[in-house]
Inverse folding.
């Protein structure tokens, strides 16, 4: 697609929402068409914000490498782009996403926030290291795929937790 921001919107709207739907199906949670449409809208907004962050942190890391503050080399740069993106931008993205998902309450729900922030370490830093190893034109696509994958993983864990809780009851 010619416009990278529109491409990011579309990819995240489709894949991020699909991840949420699959997670809800796995946990046997209720799915409403309104919630799906709203979720696609939220993911589209996040896609643009993420595209901006990816571009900005790419420049940030390149400047640090040019000034010899960081090692050069593709894998080093991919790792540091991922690390800085997730350390400086990731927490804000988690909070913004939670706020937008619960905008009718005009607050950020704190339940599960610690777990959501921990995904930045165990999931997003390794995932985005792979993402930033790819050519720029594929990075947003893979990031959107990772959003789907994380939704799937979290849905499976949630379902396992529910099943284990029912066995212990």
């Amino acid at each position: 697609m010619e416009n990278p921001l529109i491409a990011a919107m579309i990819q995240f709207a489709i894949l991020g929402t699909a991840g949420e739907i699959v997670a809800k199906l796995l946990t046997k949670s209720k799915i409403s068409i309104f919630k799906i449409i709203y979720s696609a809208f939220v993911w589209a907004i996040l896609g643009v914000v993420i595209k901006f962050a990816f571009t900005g942190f790419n420049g940030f890391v390149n400047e640090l490498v040019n000034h010899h503050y960081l090692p050069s080399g593709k894998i080093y740069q991919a790792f540091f782009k991922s690390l800085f993106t997730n350390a400086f931008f990731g927490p804000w993205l988690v909070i913004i996403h939670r706020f937008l998902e619960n905008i009718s309450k005009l607050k950020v729900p704190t339940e599960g926030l610690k777990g959501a922030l921990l995904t930045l370490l165990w999931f997003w830093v390794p995932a985005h290291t792979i993402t930033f190893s790819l050519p720029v034109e594929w990075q947003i696509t893979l990031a959107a795929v990772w959003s789907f994958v994380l939704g799937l993983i979290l849905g499976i864990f949630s379902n396992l937790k529910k099943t284990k809780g029912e066995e212990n009851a």
Q: What stands out?
A: The helical segments are 4-26, 33-66, 74-101, 113-131, 136-168. The chain has one domain: 4-168.
